[in-house]
Amino acid sequence: MNQELVTNSPLSDRVKTALAVSLRGCDELIPQDEWTRKLVRSEATGVPLRIKLGLDPTAPDIHIGHTVVLNKMRQLQDLGHTVIFLIGDFTSLIGDPSGRNSTRPPLTPEQIKVNAETYYRQASLVLDPAKTEIRYNSEWCDPLGARGMIQLASRYTVARMMERNDFHDRFKAGQSISVHEFLYPLMQGYDSVALKSDLELGGTDQKFNLLMGRHLQQEYGQEPQCILTMPLLEGLDGIEKMSKSKNNYIGISEDANSMFAKVLSISDVLMWKWYTLLSFKSEADIAALKAEIEAGRNPKDAKVALAKEITARFHSAAAADAAEQDFINRSKGGVPDEIPDVSLSGAPLGIGALLKAAGLAPSGSEASRLIDGGGVRVDSSVVSDKALKLAAGTYVVQVGKRKFARVTLA
């Protein structure tokens, strides 16, 4: 197809829509004009574009922060393009140095296998599994061998590698950088060569690695991919990026009641960023909702709608409705309809030991802290005495707003 014609012809409504979908909520689309040309060519030829997202199975579960890029993949998938969900089983053996200030210990093959088993199942809650190409980068990385690895390494210079912020900062600070860490961006870039990617998605912290894909595709004589970076989602605290280590996350495998309540706990300000990055509502619908809130409607209405949408996506509409009712019951001091039954022995039993044995506190010291904070109730009464001993009987025990158990003590 004539390149000048592609560049200068008026864009069709379909291409304009695809471009708007691509840009929604994104941090950068590099280069936008190249992506526009790819969209025009795809429409003219009927050949879908190949859109790649790689995730290393560094943990067994995905949280909703990971779904920011998955949502973008789904939006592009719904436009008819081919999405490739790449599991980095080989690159996980190296360990991604992005954003690290020290060498990251690589995972063992056994850990990678366990984690990878759940990744695609969880990602399928966002992507359409019938239209998703799932790949593992060990397919082409393992056969590369030592000779191929050396040839690949010759395609990039140490000087350019050291332009990367984390490497540059660690080098200046006298912190160690292992040679194998240089291999990570090379191998991620080689994935794009192997998959003949047209577009690669990632968080803003992945920009260097994504640009490596463009460079290596040109080195191997391919048309370079465009890259689309998405913002890192702030967690429940509204400050730090969502992370399990910071305990400010919502796991997509969490129960519906917890998921709903956690979404409601975010600030009114953060809610709008979550709408842009996590909701499937159109930007026009979100703008209309925001205008209603600014005109006086209760912001909680918008937050409840977001909580129900996210909960329904990972559970069901019925589960989201039930979670909303459960939250209402709890806010009124009520006990949820369904709470776990726990049978314990050893009456009379100290309240700290009971909380630990019932799985309501991870340790005796944490149980004491919860009691000191007024976060423990027995049959709706706040417990203030850490020395309290409970006689034989059945009690409804509550910790915080969301943890309940019906404890039968013998």
TrEMBL record:
Protein family per UniProt: Belongs to the class-I aminoacyl-tRNA synthetase family. TyrS type 2 subfamily.
SUPFAM superfamilies the record matches: Alpha-L RNA-binding motif (SSF55174), Nucleotidylyl transferase (SSF52374)
Example of a GO biological process term: tyrosyl-tRNA aminoacylation
Catalytic activity, EC: 6.1.1.1
Function: Catalyzes the attachment of tyrosine to tRNA(Tyr) in a two-step reaction: tyrosine is first activated by ATP to form Tyr-AMP and then transferred to the acceptor end of tRNA(Tyr).
Subcellular location as annotated: Cytoplasm
Gene that this polypeptide is encoded by: tyrS
Motif 'HIGH' region, residue numbers: 57-66
A molecular function GO annotation: RNA binding
Motif 'KMSKS' region, residue numbers: 241-245
Keywords on record: Aminoacyl-tRNA synthetase, ATP-binding, Cytoplasm, Ligase, Nucleotide-binding, Protein biosynthesis, RNA-binding
Binding locations of ATP: K244
Subunit composition and interactions: Homodimer.
HAMAP family: Tyr_tRNA_synth_type2
Top EC class, one word: ligase
Species of origin: Polaromonas naphthalenivorans (strain CJ2)
Reaction catalysed by this enzyme: tRNA(Tyr) + L-tyrosine + ATP = L-tyrosyl-tRNA(Tyr) + AMP + diphosphate + H(+)
Lineage: superkingdom: Bacteria
Protein name, entry field: Tyrosine--tRNA ligase
Main subcellular location of this protein, as a coarse class: cytoplasm
Classification via Gene3D superfamilies: HUPs, RNA-binding S4 domain, Tyrosyl-Transfer RNA Synthetase
NCBIfam families listed in its UniProt record: tyrS
CDD domains: S4, TyrRS_core
GO (cellular component) term, any one: cytosol
